[in-house]
Amino acid sequence: MKINMIPLIKREIKLSISNLGLVISYSSFFLLSLLIFTFGVGPDIKQLNTVYIPIIWIIMLFAIILISDNFLLSDFQDGSLKELQYLGYSEESIILSKTIVMYLILIIPHFFLIPVFSIFYDISFNNLVQLSLDIVVGMPSLILISLIASLLTIQIKRNKVLQFIIIMPFYVPIIIFTTSNNESILYSSFDLNKILILIGFFLITLPITLLIGKLILNEINK
Amino acid sequence: MMFKFANPNKFVKISELLFPYFNILFLISFIYGLYLSFFNSPPDYLQGETVRIMYIHVPCAWFSLMLYSSIAICSFFSLVFRHTLADIAIRAIAPLGASFTIATLITGSIWGKPTWGTWWVWDARLTSELVLLFLYVGIISLSNAFEQKSKGDKYAAILSLVGIVNLPIIKWSVDWWNTLHQPASISKFSSPSIDTIMLVPLFVMTLSFLFLSLNIIIIRIKSEIIQRKIDILNSSKIN
User: Fold this and answer.
1) Which B-chain residues 20-59 have CB contacts (< 8 A) with chain A?
2) CA B166, A218, A205 angle in degrees (round to 5)?
3) Taking the CB of the first residue and of the last residue of chain A, which one, N or C, has fewer CB atoms within 10 A?
4) ipTM
5) Nearest residue in chain A measured CA to CA from B136
6) Is residue B13 part of a domain?
């Protein structure tokens, strides 16, 4: 069983670079959702400033669920997933390499999107740093959970709604903890506990996703 | 020993033997439980007569969690030992568990209005129970989403194993967070705890719910076994 992930990561990066439309779609979805939320909440900047954290996390969550299929579905449809397994790569390394590349690809647009977001919602510099750190640390957990949903529904046609139904409950704890820092917004203080909790979530979701991913990939190839 | 009884044909034979007894036990415990709940237990000094909703609400909540745990155990047996009866049991139990969860939410709402003054609060216990309902919905949808039943069974088993992380959150949510929902008070060792005069009808009602659940699960498993036999016959006809 090959555990060298470098070729896998290289392959995934090459595929993602050849499909840069994905990043553009992700960024467009992000900005358009911001617009919709702003229309929904109202243009009052003070009000928007108090609800920006849930808004950004909800948008990210939906965007990641919608985009996660692109990292798996095409590989499943053209047989690459099977091929990688026959080549001797462990299921865990396939899932992990996809997670790493998905993270790298999706985190890049945030370097541009979050500053734009902070202007729209009048976010202070300290809160912006906190938000950016939260996203950097919290995003892997969102990606890992979305990969479980994609793997579970990969063989079902018209699976989008089902994907949302089965995976939403698992996002609840992460959303609770990522959006629960009203005090630090008020006082613009840095919340280390939240970062630690998000790291904790990552350490829980990582082995679960790898284990579940292995089980599902084995099931798919039966 | 366990696998000997887990054979579908053997299960049908044993369940046919037990089914009438479970039915009788359900009827007796349900009627007796209702009598105790309405005529032999006092109204609460604060909540008045509305406290009687507890005799339905609490067993429903217990069974919503217990049935999910049994689904998770079946999932483990399905994935590790690849046992068909475990797959069938997951399909049979999930809708029942979802029904108990819905009943818990509805009765809780009815109880909440006179007690808390609102039908719903985004309290940790209530929210986690709602999340449990969505987990059940996910399992039911996923198991029925595949053309091949066996695939749906396996994927539903995987999903239910992942979902087990929600059970401790529901169970201890009232202890971990400062919530409107009261902490558990059934245990006689904890303080404050429920009075025996209310505890007895609660346990009798729980017993009746247990026999009701067993009856429904037996019926559903038997019908699923028959359905699978019909499917096999149909597919052999086509071939």
Assistant:
1) none
2) 30
3) C
4) 0.77
5) A166
6) no
